Amino acid sequence: MEEDPDDVPHGHITSLAVKRSHRRLGLAQKLMDQASRAMIENFNAKYVSLHVRKSNRAALHLYSNTLNFQISEVEPKYYADGEDAYAMKRDLTQMAEEQLRKQMELKDKSRPQPLSSIENKSDNRSGHVGDCCRDEKCISNAGKRDCTEDSGDSKDVSEVSEATESTDVKDSSEASDSAS
Hints:
protein N-terminal-serine acetyltransferase activity; single chain; EC 2.3.1.255; N-terminal amino-acid N(alpha)-acetyltransferase NatA; 2 domains; alpha+beta
């Protein structure tokens, strides 16, 4: 993180390298995205900046096209060998909003439901055995202890369970186990 008291909180990438044999696998993008998320989470960063050699076409493509960095200025003779650098910035506000939205979704999913809301479901299944709930006929007969077809015939819960089990499809590993 850059520490300029008059500036908005932001991060700066000093160096990023991926071994030649591991390039073009998306590692640099993942590293940059993870670093950006950490800057947001830990320091409330609004943007991230970096410098890249004008001659580094691969890095320019990654930063500009894949990671949405914008060239903010050209810094003449930035490098020791006299080469110019592009100063680039990536706005992190959209990433921060997305991160916050995901956190809120996870928080809502993990929030325990009050017992009363679980027991008083709108389909009135309290007291329902539950084993036959996979059978569509039982959905229309919610609240009854056994499943009754429209013809008036009553099915025992074990009969319904057996009927649904016979439609289960074994995966290939189970099929090969039973074949041997």
